[in-house]
Amino acid sequence: MNILILNCGSSSIKFQVTKMPQYHVLVQGRVERIGYDDAIFINSINKDKTVQPVKNHEEGINLILNSLFNNTSISKDNIDAIGHRVVQGGDKQNESVMIDDQVIDYIESIKELAPLHNPNHLAGIYACKKLLPSVPQVAVFDNGFHMSLPKSTYIYGIPYEYYEKHRIRRYGFHGIAFRSMAEEVDKILKDSHKNYKIVNLMLGSGTTANALKYGKSIEVSTGFTPHEGLIQSTRAGDIDVAAILYLMKKENLTIEEADELINKKSGWKGLSGISNDMREIYEASEEGNERARLAIDVACHRFKKYVGAYSAIMEGIDILVFSGGVGENAFYIREKVCKGLEFMGIEIDEDRNKNNEKIISKDTSRVKILVVNANEEKIIAEDTYKICSSK
Prior knowledge:
globular; alpha/beta; about 40% helix; Nucleotidyltransferase, domain 5; about 20% strand; five-stranded mixed beta sheet; 15 helices
């Protein structure tokens, strides 16, 4: 079965075509800067990068399909199913599911819960319905992994009627990535992650911390939206909401402008004034840029704080896992997070860490420190294959 996997972001589409059940990747790539005249299309077919106007997600998916059908042996008849990452499934639709009109209506009804994500996922679903109308589609929900959170964890300290009326609660995100990270832990340790208390740090452009206790998610840093929690590339993370209200009054900001401030202009981009790319910030810090150093220090302080908090919530920690582009590659981030946590049994091996090995803890460390690759596309492919095969 050939499965097209789509991950539609606010201005991008990541895609793969994989052969299942082997999970053999036939082709992959991405479209960036959707909505601009200089959108970028990158794929593994010819390892080329083309720049051209792409107005919307439908045009982006059309570009992907035309490239597949014209430059590979893949035709419309070779696409057997389509799997979509959907960030927000609310508290009713948390299992991966075949997409039909009822599912689409439900995603439409809750799209305000994830205004930066769900509308774009819907755009991808609608585009596929139009361009490949006979191909079944599956939605894999990013927050489904966290439906095991206890009520005492997901309820906010606001009047309870707003939870009842508007479903305002902690949902948590990066669940697909955490599922993949758990699979990788099993492979590395040759044992089930369900036997351990694990703190997961998914550190990419978006960041989420997770407490995984004996196979169940019991705490997560992202909340009602992906904004809450850790400092991210362009998101502020935890902040006194009254400070935002204060800024709105002082700067005469609209709700939309305030939303853009905390989601697109903050994080280590806003702190450094340099970039949302941690690599560029690190290079600047090594050259003596004080704001770049500050951005790294502030982000790592937040990362470390959540490791301690989640270890306390689980009443112990056996494994600390780093993943995501930053988590997998930025040895200096891992070093800062782990330094000083020896009292918790977390001892990092400097050489293993700098070499980006899979196990970077010392042999004497009571807590194993792992670096894993989170393959969200593989999880989406597995769920899509399972659902479509059973149908």
